[in-house]
Design a protein that fits this description.
Layout (H helix, E strand, L loop, with lengths): L9 H10 L8 E3 L3 E13 L20 E13 L9 E11 L2 H4 L14 E13 L6 E9 L19 H5 L4 E10 L4 E8 L18 E10 H4 L1 E11 L4 E3 L5 E3 L7 E12 L4 E12 L4 E13 L4 E12 L6 E3 L4 H6 L6 E3 L12 E12 L8 E16 L6 E3 L5 E3 L1 E12 L1
Antiparallel strand pairs: 1-2, 2-3, 2-23, 3-4, 4-5, 5-6, 6-7, 7-8, 8-9, 9-10, 10-13, 11-12, 13-14, 14-15, 15-16, 16-19, 17-18, 19-20, 20-23, 21-22
Length: 431
């Protein structure tokens, strides 16, 4: 994950600069180097099929068809570490978010059931930070709650070149962690990432860790400034037992899961950024996830090309293929609490490909999506940034079990099409 929320990787910076990432020019400055920034992100996603369940299948943040959503009202209070300062440093970051995206990104048992509304509150990040100059260029440390550094796309809307997200972002990666994360800058080229945490979207303690108390490991490497500064590579993994300690039985009762500590969830991801020209950049993401819990795996590849026409306009295209073996990963919630209930081992009303809204079929599906969008940054004010992002997206089934039709769900609860067009746009106001 996740550039603007925690991964200072040059590959992200290349795309961000070309895509016109909205960053406030004038942050509110407080004593001790503390700054306050934020943004509002709102948009609409149109679906000409007008599915009966109002779901754009395969899209989660902007999953509601033909509906306006305020996805994010985000506020950051932080004291940044200065990458030019080689000495000891301290810092912190708090990021709170209100909007429809929060129903998906909650830490387990943290503000996740205080409302049934699709508009919810979430803590995206709350950590202390430091820079310790012991090895090479020093080690950056985070302790607390933080977005995962794994992957290319991020929770923060201002860190992405497109409004809609990839399958990899939603179904092949964690969102957040609680724990300790270190990034050691061995030299100008090599970064080493090491971390230990409570798991995927988990807090601490019995009520905050549905997936047992065993620690999970995050590790990997970053390669910066290759090929004359044009190429960067980030390869990260996250591994640990993640099976819920309790399940909802067929009678509705809660029963313990004796195999909770033996079922491992594994994530592997690599992001490769290349600056082709001063105006054209590419990013390729390779992803694989394996779940012992479901005896299933998934993964795929996505490629982004961004061309900056000038300081105000840029164009981004994304092509992706994502394979879901046994149909355990790609799904969307039909109510605002489905994602929370799923984390708790309760029976959510997820919509799965090839099944009704309440059933789960076993199938193999390879999804494909093509998205093209533009970013326009008008000069509005010295105090505010504005970014407008219209896009056109095509989702389709390109392989797997024959006859799967996950899109355009009808009144019966079953999908009627193997492909889907959506046209969407959002506006981000940064301050």
């Amino acid at each position: 994950m996740k550039a603007s929320l925690g991964a200072p990787v040059a590959a992200f910076c290349l795309i961000g600069a070309a895509a016109g990432v909205a960053q406030a020019d004038t942050a509110l400055s407080l004593p001790y180097g503390i700054s306050v920034t934020g943004h509002v992100d709102a948009g609409v996603s149109g679906n000409p099929d007008d599915p009966a369940n109002n779901i754009n299948f395969g899209q989660t943040f902007n999953d509601r068809a033909n509906s306006f959503r305020m996805n994010q009202l985000m506020l950051n209070v932080e004291r940044d570490l200065d990458p030019k300062n080689a000495g000891y440093q301290w810092g912190f970051k708090f990021t709170g978010m209100y909007g429809t995206d929060a129903r998906v990104t909650h830490f387990y048992n943290e503000f996740d059931r205080i409302t049934h509304s699709p508009y919810q509150f979430d803590i995206v990040e709350a950590d202390a930070q430091s820079h310790i100059p012991w090895i090479g260029g020093g080690t950056d440390v985070k302790l607390g709650q933080y977005p995962t550094p794994i992957g290319y796309e991020v929770i923060d809307a201002t860190g992405n070149p497109l409004y809609s997200h990839s399958y990899i972002f939603f179904y092949g990666l964690p969102f957040k962690h609680t724990g300790l994360l270190t990034t050691t800058h061995v030299n100008d080229t090599l970064d080493v990432w090491l971390g230990v945490d409570t798991g995927v979207n988990s807090w601490i303690g019995q009520k905050g860790m549905p997936n047992n108390e065993f620690p999970k490991a995050l590790f990997g490497f970053g390669l910066n400034g290759l090929m004359g500064g044009k190429l960067t590579i980030l390869g990260l993994s996250h591994i640990g037992p993640e099976a819920p300690r309790f399940f909802e039985s067929s009678s509705g009762g809660i029963v313990p899961n004796p195999g909770a500590n033996n079922k491992v969830l594994q994530f592997y991801d690599m992001v490769i950024g290349y600056k082709i020209t001063d105006a054209l950049t590419s990013t390729t993401e390779l992803n694989y996830v394996k779940s012992d819990i479901a005896n299933a795996s998934a993964g795929g590849a996505a490629t982004y090309l961004t061309y900056a026409l000038n300081d105000q306009w840029s164009i981004t295209g994304r092509a992706e293929a994502f394979s879901d073996q046994n149909g355990n990963f790609v799904s969307v919630g039909t109510t605002s609490l489905d994602y929370v209930n799923g984390a708790r081992g309760l029976a959510p009303a997820f919509a799965y490909a090839g099944a009704t809204n309440t059933g789960v079929a076993r199938y193999n599906v390879v999804y494909g999506e093509l998205t093209i969008g533009t970013t326009y940054k008008p000069a509005v004010s010295d105090r505010f940034n504005v970014m407008f992002r219209p896009e056109l997206r095509y989702d389709t089934v390109i392989g797997g079990t024959a006859g799967i039709k996950p899109f355009d769900v009808g009144a019966s609860g079953a999908g009627r099409k193997s492909s889907q067009w959506t046209i969407a746009a959002d506006v981000i106001i940064g301050f």
